[in-house]
Amino acid sequence: MSEPAMPEGTLDARYSDPRAEPSRWEEVREALDTAQTYWLTTVRADGRPHVTPLIAIWDASALHFSTGEREQKSRNLAAHRHVALTTGANALDEGLDVVLEGEATRVTDTARLEHLAAAWLRKYGEVWRYEVRDDSFWHPGGGLATVYAVRPAAVHAFRKGPTYAQTRWTLD
């Protein structure tokens, strides 16, 4: 499945080096595709934030993650679907940090889940081999896991040193 063309990113001059150019979508997409760890921010029923690390797959213009039904993030998503997913480098003066904001939508289509399970296996190896059961992923170590897709409503890229740049994409 090919990805639609992205609009040009907008450079925020307030937080960018005067010589900076906007980050290119291709480098942001690569960061979303190749990252090993992401941080998911959800909102608890009482409004407090909940942040947790997880693994994810960029596929078909969306970031996909899974969660067990008893996990806090699953309970949060039952009440609030708006999330932020973050990835990047843990360095002050190098790398690219990316924040993707959007709404988490459950994936239940069997063919889509099988495609995503194969993508998880390719990216993360045998320890993350999933079977598709009951509109979910199933893993012998954790049971059933609900799969979500987050299509970006907004993306922020923070390029660090030597030319700092903050770029934003707003999507429909």
TrEMBL record:
Entry EC number(s): 1.-.-.-, 1.4.3.5
Domain Pyridoxamine 5'-phosphate oxidase N-terminal residues, every copy: 26-128
Residues covered by region (Disordered): 1-22
Source organism, top-level taxon: Bacteria
InterPro entries xref list: F420H2_bilvrd_red/Heme_oxyg (IPR052019), Pyridox_Oxase_N (IPR011576), Split_barrel_FMN-bd (IPR012349)
Family matches, as Pfam families: PNPOx_N
Signal sequence, start to end: none
Keyword Ion transport: no
Keywords on record: Oxidoreductase
UniProt-recorded name of the protein: Pyridoxamine 5'-phosphate oxidase family protein
Organism annotation: Actinacidiphila polyblastidii
Organism phylogeny: Bacteria, Bacillati, Actinomycetota, Actinomycetes, Kitasatosporales
